[in-house]
Amino acid sequence: MLLVACQTTSGPGVRGDVDDAAVWAALEAGGKVVLFRHGEVERGPGAGDSLVRDESCARERNLSSFGRRQFTRLGEAFAARGIRVDEVLASPFCRTRQSAELGFGRFEVREFLSLAEILPESEAQDAALEAADLIGNYAGEGNLVLVTHEPNIVLIAQKAVGFAHALVLEPQGGPFFEVIGVLRP
Questions:
Q1: Tens of pLDDT along 134-153?
Q2: 53 pLDDT tier (thresholds 50, 70, 90)
Q3: How far apart (Å, rounded) are the C-alpha atoms in residues 132 and 21?
Q4: What is the DSSP string of 67-106?
Q5: How far apart are CA 137 and CA 161, in angstroms?
Q6: What is residue 18's predicted lDDT score, i.e. its pLDDT?
Q7: CA separation for the pair 74, 28 (Å, rounded)
Q8: Vertex 184, ends 119 and 1: CA angle to 5°?
């Protein structure tokens, strides 16, 4: 397994015991980066291959109906709380694009968010460092949303998250950031 040096300023953990209200308040203040794992995926025979990239989405593993609901509800929660989202970036895989579209109605594809498991080790390391640098240097008034895959989140922040969960990050400059808390659907 590859490992990018920990980019967090406070270690790989989360600030103390942060409750959901504190995480939402941080997002309301703006200037944060929200690092999402895509929603739950289809499973079983005919569900597609999680390691295949297919523009038509026919051969890829796609969101399940529950995964689609997860991101629809997340988008509704952001809207209900008036959370400003300046930009949404997603991995080129269908499940991440679907999650971004359902949650935020828009997205731009970025290759550096592509599934680390399909990349040569050096490319996966470079992609994770590119993501960490983007996170650490984010300076928008609203929030930046990144939708990617669990292995990427582990490489970037050394923390695993469940489907449709997100790390809410405070940029610290350079490739450094602090994990404020976990946003759960």
A1: 999 999 999 999 999 999 99
A2: confident
A3: 26
A4: HHHHHHHHHHHHHHTT--EEEEEE-SSHHHHHHHHHHHS-
A5: 23
A6: 53
A7: 14
A8: 25
